[in-house]
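Quick illustration, no need to memorize.
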Amino acid sequence: MVTIGVWRARAAHLPRDTRDTLFQLAVIGWAVAPHLLHLPLWCGAMTALLLLWRARLALSSGALPHRWVVSALLVLAAGLTVWTERTLLGKEAGITMLVVLMALKTLELRARRDALVVFFLGFFLVLTHFLYSQSLATGLWLLVAVWGLLTALALAHMPVGRPPLRRAAAVAARTAALGLPLMVVLFVLFPRMGPLWGLPQDAAGRTGLSGTMRLGGVASIAEDDSIALRVRFDGPTPRLDQLYFRGPVLSRFDGLEWTRLVPSFPAAERPRLELESRGPALRYEMTVEPNRLLLLPLLEMTPDGADAAPRIEGWLLTLRPDGQWQLDRPLVERVRVQAAAWLEHRHGPRQDVPGLRDLVALPTGANPRTLQWAAQLRQQPPLENADARTLSDAVLTHIRRGGYTYTLEPGAYADDAIDEFWLDRKLGFCEHFASAFVVVMRAMDVPARVVTGYQGADPEPQDGYWIVRQRNAHAWAEIWQAGEGWVRVDPTAAVAPERVQRGRSLAPRPGLVAGAFGQLDPALATRLRRAWESVDNRWNQWVLNYSRGTQFALLRQLGVRSPSWQDLATATIGLLCTAALGGAAWAWWDRRRQDPWQRLQRRVQQRLEALGVQVLPHHAPRTRAARVREVLGPRGEPLAALLDALDRERYAGGGGRSPSRGWWRRFAGAASQLG
């Protein structure tokens, strides 16, 4: 408290220019800070040094650097930008240069015009943050930045005296509040031409999934606690062990990595989906976070049909033969989708087709010991002529009894990773078990493939939504059984049943802050996170997911039968025109309402000039009284007395908000008797 008091005392004695400059630099630093997560290290360091240099000059009342120094720094920044970004064009390079230009411009704060340039550069810089993130946290951070910029702008328009920062901040808050209704109207009615925020070609997205899988890849995802998707069910909620969200289906293995299959058979001989649904449909709604993939991780199995197929306005969705829903472009924005799934189903060809031979292929010379182990298992008398299900049960039994351990930290594996995992170390995550299982099944001539996606969810819903996190990323297997088609097999359930049955994914070691919260209250961090995610979900649903369809639904509620772009444009223009007319009327009324003393002065001047008494607009009432006595003599004494009384009322007592009632009536009456 003593330190804070000392700093307050020092700040109170700073010259106004120094105080305002330091405040402006602090606001700029606040606005720039989130960009430092995305920009090159040199840009953050250079910006910080420039702002600190400018702050030192303000405190020491030093001279600003010459323009050639600023120009040299600008050339240096441009060169570093080309070095790191390979261009001066595009989003990354443009924002890098904008941040440096903002810092350099503070070295040219010689006039009010320079300050205004900095303010408006700051507003533009705030807008660029939404090219990286549209989260609620970003919005709240930038709300403070905008408030600070408006406060600095208000200070720049208070040139007289030393107005306190609190007063300027209040003016900024009132100004923002006046613009709030217009902002809401534009948000609700302005036609949406595409995503609310972002650039479709390069919007930042993050996901635990990818189009390929290496051993250890999914384990690294399990350390990511961010949200992948939210799902809400219309009706009874399925069990957690039934929540399989199908992602990339990987059928080609080169010994190290699983990728999508490039079929070697003609289209007529390839396996088809042939989906058969059983039981009632499960309708659900999902909000999927950006993942930069060409697919949607939908609930298994979401079919294609008039009542069940997913729909996203402006997107083309295609159901592939492997049951994966493919998009026409990468998912770089948050989307909301409604669909229906059948948890009880079977899919794939019932009878053998030539294309299934692609799904028993294994790389030559890779993992020879595992292949030998599988051949020996197949030669056992009970399994010589067994079907795919029986062979699968035998392999799962081996996993249960073979001393395998489910862990996030299995360590690195060598080139023949399946051999080392299956026969030696026996330590692995879900992708180790799924990969080894598929290799073993293929070695026994059973068509099999790896499926990646998400499995399970948080144990409790938030605001009616079940949260699926990146750490719920999972890998499982599918085998082909004659007469049934593809059958899901999850080898992880054989070694860690709680992972599948209860959705309990392995948790990484907590960080410093999370560990401190855990020491104080084990449930505190969980409660705080859930509360924040609940608020963030409402932000996503009400703001970021506010779409063209929602706008049309609003117009229908207002009585428009068939809403269109023209209706939205008409409503927007009509409301803007109404707001403009209302603002003009308010300004006219406010102009007449404000400063009644000046209006009275003009009326008095006009009446005196009609009597031949010439006065100027800036003359005080007592000066005008003297002019009346000088020009009109004794007969003008009643007017002069009234003007003296007005002068005392205006100045002697501190001045009221408006002149006393009846004064003008008495003055006009006295002037009429003289005229």
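Residues 2-183 form one domain.
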